[in-house]
Amino acid sequence: MSIFEIMGELINPGSMGKMDFKYNDQNIHQKFIPTRFAISMMIIGIVEYLFISQSNSYNNFGYIMKANAFLFIYLLISFKINIKPDYKNLGWIPFLINNPFKFSDNINRILVILNIFFMPGKYVSKNIVEFYKHLKIK
Question: In degrees rounded to 5, what are phi and psi of residue 18?
Fold first, then answer.
């Protein structure tokens, strides 16, 4: 962070996105819930296959447990976290050129990257929870 960024934020502060841990319930059509659950299970199966086949640890129970624990923690964090970057403050040419007088655009870019990182996990985990709720209703 340069002195220009500090002075620029003091004079004209930029808007920043936010992260919270509130659950936002989305309305999903009831007829799509089993299909989305099946797609989520295929994604988990592919990830499991890649974890196990790339390391040639078919019989290593400790490695399989670590990989599953990592996947579970990723899905749990993805389900709980809501990242909302401010897309209007990403730099001069959005995401390409840094604004040298503000550091809030750097924070928004980090939030965009985190949002992209957690998006697949959010899709999978929300579909699993929605399928569980769908089964409880019937």
Answer: -145, 160
Q: Bridge partners of 137?
A: none
Q: What residues does each domain of the chain span?
A: 32-137
Asked if residue 98 lies in contact with residue 91, where contact means CB atoms within 8 angstroms, the answer is: yes
- CB burial string 85-105: b at 16+ within 10 A, e below: bbeebbbeeeeeebbebbbbb
- List Cβ neighbours of 79 (8 Å cut-off, separation of 6 or more): 121, 122, 125, 126, 129
pTM above 0.90, yes or no: no
CA distances for 33 relative to 38, 40, 91, 99, angstroms:
9, 10, 39, 43
The pLDDT assigned to 54 comes to 74
CA 103 to chain CA centroid, nearest Å: 22
List pLDDT tens digits, range 25-70.
Answer: 677 778 889 999 999 999 999 998 888 877 676 778 888 888 899 9
Which ranges of the chain does DSSP label H, i.e. alpha helix?
Answer: 3-11, 33-55, 61-80, 104-137
DSSP, res 100: T
